[in-house]
Amino acid sequence: MKRFLFCIGFAIASVASYAQEQAEAPKYELVERNRRMPFVTSDGYVKQDNKVITYYTIEKAGETGKKFRYTLPNGTAVAEAFIKHDNMGKMVVTTMIDNKKHTVGVKNITEMDIAREVAMFLSDNKYL
User: Fold this and answer.
1) Is residue 113 one of the residues assigned to a domain?
2) For 85-108, what is each residue's pLDDT tens digit?
3) pTM of the model
4) What letter does residue 31 receive in the DSSP assignment?
């Protein structure tokens, strides 16, 4: 009987813990804006219609690559994009909400331009 009560208590605690995690988890809410306005990139964020639509970070990935990470302004992870120096022009973008991989062509070489192009792809496909 004690074992049964322990299991019931554990299950109730688990459900309560899960409910609290869901309540605290950031929502996947896109920034309301005029999507016809141009994208403006700065060090660490991308704006459209004078509103920050995503923050991004860049880190070295291995010897010949870079990883770009994108989040919504509320901190929710949106995507990771990986590019190899020997494969300039193509990035593999993994979107977090559906765990899909996309190949995205990029025309520019600077990090801010690449960040903007990936943000444009994410926005066009309703991830941002």
Assistant:
1) yes
2) 766 678 999 999 999 999 998 887
3) 0.77
4) P
